[in-house]
Amino acid sequence: MAHARARLLAVVVALGATACGGGSSSKPQLSSLAARGAGLVQVKPCLVCHTTNGGPAAGPTFSGLAGSRVTLADRTTVTADDAYLKRSILDPGAQTVAGFPKGLMATLVKPASVTPVQADAIVAYIDSLAGVKPAK
Ligand code: HEC
């Protein structure tokens, strides 16, 4: 009887080891701020026009965006640092990325529909996608 229970225990332990030993998960760990941003881009209309994996959409992908050089419609280039990203979110009409329609984002993202605090979280999320190379 005690023997049987010991064997059962050994099986359970072995199963547990297999289930947990499957290697690391492929998703990078997000900071809590970035995790909040990841949630916000889903409840806001952002993902209607932006992808997070490099795929094409009405707007530029968020993957590989942070820290990259962005060419604007007036042919100037800017670095997509946190200040640029935050401004792009809070004031979509201020600058237009070359090759994309001016004013499109503002049709769904109304002024003040994203608060500065929410924008910070979204920027942290976009930063977390910096290392993800856009699939061109
Ligand atoms: C109706 C489509 C649409 C929606 C919805 C939308 N965007 Fe955009 N977004 C665009 C387009 C088009 C551009 C590029 C043209 C421009 O700069 O205005 C852009 C540009 C951006 C940029 C700058 C990208 C770059 O490559 O420099 C950021 C950051 C951004 N959007 C974030 C957001 C966030 C966050 C939301 C949700 C709150 C959002 N967008 C919702 C269409 C959209």
Characteristics:
2 strands; Cytochrome Bc1 Complex, Chain D, domain 2; binds heme C; mainly alpha; 136 residues
Which SSEs are present, and which pair or pack?
Blueprint (H helix, E strand, L loop, with lengths): L1 H19 L11 H12 L2 H4 L19 E3 L5 E3 L2 H9 L13 H5 L7 H13 L8
Antiparallel strand pairs: 1-2
Helix pairs in contact: 2-6, 4-6
Bound molecules: heme C.
What is the name of the CATH topology? Answer: Cytochrome Bc1 Complex, Chain D, domain 2
Q: Total domains, how many?
A: 1
Class from secondary-structure proportions: mainly alpha
Distance N to C terminus: 64 Å
- Which residue ranges are poorly predicted, with pLDDT under 50 across at least 5 consecutive positions? 9-24
Outline the biggest β-sheet. Answer: 2 strands, antiparallel
- Reading side by side through the largest sheet, how are the strands ordered? 1-2
CA-atom Rg in angstroms: 22 Å
Q: What are the distinct ligands in this entry?
A: heme C
Content of β-strand: under 5%
CATH homologous superfamily name? Cytochrome c-like domain
Secondary-structure element string: HHHEEHHH
Name of the CATH first level: Mainly Alpha
- The average pLDDT value, as a whole number, equals 85
- Shape assignment: globular
Number of strands: 2
CATH architecture: Orthogonal Bundle
Helical segment tally? 6
